[in-house]
CN hydrolase domain-containing protein (Talaromyces islandicus), 344 residues
Amino acid sequence: MLVLAAMARILKIAAAQLGPVHRDTPREQTLERLINLLRSAAQRGAALVVFPELAFTTFFARHLFTNPTHLDAFFEHDPDISQSNVTGPLFAEAQRLRVDICVGYAEKTREGRTFNSAIYYSAKLSQVVTKYRKVHIPGTREPVPDKMATNHLEKRYFEPGDLGFRAFRVPGLISLSDSTQTTCSVEDPILGMLICNDRRWPEAWRCYGLQGVELVLCGYNTPGYNPHFWGTRETISPEKATSTTLAQHKLVMQANSYMNSCFSVAAGKAGIEDGRYDLIGGSCIVDPEGQILAQALTTDDEVVFAEIDLDACRQGKENIFNFAQHRMVETYQRIVDQVGVIPP
């Protein structure tokens, strides 16, 4: 009897790394660069493109703003940024190209609440499918007294995300899907979103892993040299600090992809912003074995592309990381009961 092999669940994906965006860079200029990256990824066949955290602006959390109007200029106020006059052209181009996108931005709600957010836009459905708000907010509320320090004031400008870690599916994203499909099927990939610092927290990944996640999308803006923020010893050189930070970034993407048997895409904003502030590159695509499939070679605008088979997640999920067979939840209570360190 002839047994037909199952068709591979192939998905072509890209990380759209963005080079420096300065404090005085016009929003329209940044948007044009994002659209050019989207077009470049589409030409390579990408069905999904991931953009960085706070993709439309500089990483403004390094600055102290005393004028609310100046701060507000960095936030998107429209409840649906895919329909905004400012950011809408990116989504219109995604729909024209039939490419899904995940993009990060600074969100201000009608009630005045502020979040570091990302949304997933489906070109097939012509709408935002879901939103994620950054949970693990790093940095401080108050500036560091040292005038030479690079501040990291995310806790001043953003609330911790209140939407949790909700995995989701998108209809018709992979090649097996019917081109007319508008509802999800079991063949559609299970996706999850993280933003920057969230990628360092294994609890976030495990929440997605327990939902069977197959692909995690993560945008980031990560300082290369910031001793006051990271607690790095002050004698370390900027070059060594940047190389260490880059290695740690790849480490958490690779380790967590492996431990949750999933692919991941990390898209960063990189380079020297405002002539002083260094952001690492390292945008990459990682497989379920923890191997880097593709990565950025520069700290400028660059598309990182890979073709993945989502069924490659099955080996880990069905064997070494078969959660149903091997997790020992009765021993993990400390993880959810305790926040700070309590020495023995």
